[in-house]
């Protein structure tokens, strides 16, 4: 790449620009849609606005929120990790198998987190050192981690975990429907948000998504960044697996099958570009809550799971395709009498 080519690469948006987009742009529209869904559901769906409904909604979306934190940074950096649900299942199985063999639960959970870090490091090594595309790598490790999980326990489940630990993940703040575990998410979200939106590391994440080669030419250590993002994804997936095991009181090899699709959908609905270089963490959090609230309302309205999946899919397509159509319309409006060509980018 020549110096002239590097000069044509768009710079990563500043923190102020990103916050402006959060407050006035697409994230504001997503927030407005969440408010509209909540208001309509509260008025038309019995029991939706109760503390109990919101309590279970938060418990349901908690693992998605955890995994979405590193996934947001990965997608902004033009990478993806589809092995997250399999790592969740593997960590759940490890907790169950170790506890069943007499290990203290805390030690078993710690081992699961270490295995999550190792699995993430494997993904990062194959992507950054071997040079394989993250989509292909994580599809492979998706099958690998799930195969290990099923191989360890087979078709059986481990149950009988300490009631104190199960009560802890299910506890809620007195007088509210907010689970105590949401406090952990708030702390982690603040940490990831500061890194992404207020540090040089975050600026490198955006720069890598816009043009990784230019970011390297400018001195950014894109490979090291990508490696540690995959490690973070593995650890957060393993943490979600520990939570999953204690919340449902069961360690199984098929825990959370398909959850990676919910995570990716939430990230994209939250305004992160699948092509990298654009997005913000607050929008992703709202996206997770939007999908969770919509699915909860439809379940309470006795809508079948197939229809719920269709509605979720339509929402995802609309949020991915919509911005491109709006950009085309704005471009056409700025050039009266012209039409965007069929091959013009959206």
List the helices and strands in order: HHHHHHHHHHHHHH
What's the shape? globular
Arithmetic mean of pLDDT: 88
Strand content: under 5%
Characterise the protein shown here:
- It contains 14 helices and no strands.
- With 346 residues, it is mostly helical.
- The N terminus and C terminus are likely disordered.
- It has a domain of 195 residues.
- It starts with a helix and ends in a 12-residue tail after the last helix.
Entry summary:
By secondary structure, the chain is mainly α. It contains 14 helices and no strands.
SSE order and pairing:
Layout: H1 3-7, H2 15-24, H3 26-44, H4 51-76, H5 84-100, H6 105-128, H7 134-153, H8 163-170, H9 181-198, H10 200-217, H11 222-248, H12 259-269, H13 281-300, H14 305-334
Helix pairs in contact: 2-3, 3-13, 4-9, 4-10, 4-11, 4-12, 4-13, 5-6, 5-7, 5-11, 6-7, 6-11, 8-11, 9-10, 12-13, 12-14
Please describe the structure with a list of short key phrases separated by commas or semicolons.
346 residues; mainly alpha; 0% strand; globular; disordered C terminus
């Amino acid at each position: 790449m020549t110096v002239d080519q590097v000069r044509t690469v768009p710079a990563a948006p500043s923190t102020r620009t990103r916050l402006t987009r959060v407050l006035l742009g697409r994230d504001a529209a997503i927030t407005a849609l969440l408010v509209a869904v909540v208001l309509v559901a509260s008025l038309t769906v019995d029991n939706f606005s109760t503390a109990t409904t919101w309590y279970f909604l938060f418990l349901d979306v908690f693992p998605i929120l955890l995994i979405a934190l590193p996934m947001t940074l990965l997608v902004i950096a033009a990478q993806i990790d589809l092995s997250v649900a399999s790592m969740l299942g593997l960590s759940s199985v490890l907790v169950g198998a170790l506890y069943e063999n007499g290990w203290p639960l805390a030690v078993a959970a710690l081992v699961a987190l270490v295995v999550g870090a190792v699995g993430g490091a494997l993904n990062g090594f194959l992507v950054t050192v071997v040079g394989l595309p993250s989509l292909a790598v994580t599809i492979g490790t998706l099958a690998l981690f799930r195969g290990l999980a099923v191989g360890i326990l087979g078709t059986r489940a481990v149950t009988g975990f300490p009631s104190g630990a199960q009560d802890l993940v299910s506890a809620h703040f007195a007088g509210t429907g907010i689970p105590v575990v949401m406090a952990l998410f708030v702390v982690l979200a603040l940490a990831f948000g500061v890194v992404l939106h207020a540090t040089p590391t975050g600026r490198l994440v955006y720069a890598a998504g816009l043009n990784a080669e230019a970011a390297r030419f400018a001195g950014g250590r894109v490979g090291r960044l990508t490696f540690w993002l995959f490690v973070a994804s593995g650890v957060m997936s393993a943490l979600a697996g520990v939570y999953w095991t204690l919340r449902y009181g069961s360690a199984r090899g098929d825990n959370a099958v398909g959850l990676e699709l919910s995570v990716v959908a939430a990230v994209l609905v939250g305004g992160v570009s699948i092509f990298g270089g654009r997005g913000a963490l607050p929008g992703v959090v709202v996206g997770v809550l939007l999908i969770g609230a919509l699915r909860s309302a439809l379940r309470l309205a006795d809508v079948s799971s197939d229809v719920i999946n269709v509605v979720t899919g339509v929402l995802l397509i609309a949020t991915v395709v919509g911005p491109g159509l709006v950009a085309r319309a704005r471009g056409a409006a700025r050039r009266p009498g012209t039409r965007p060509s069929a091959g013009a980018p959206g």
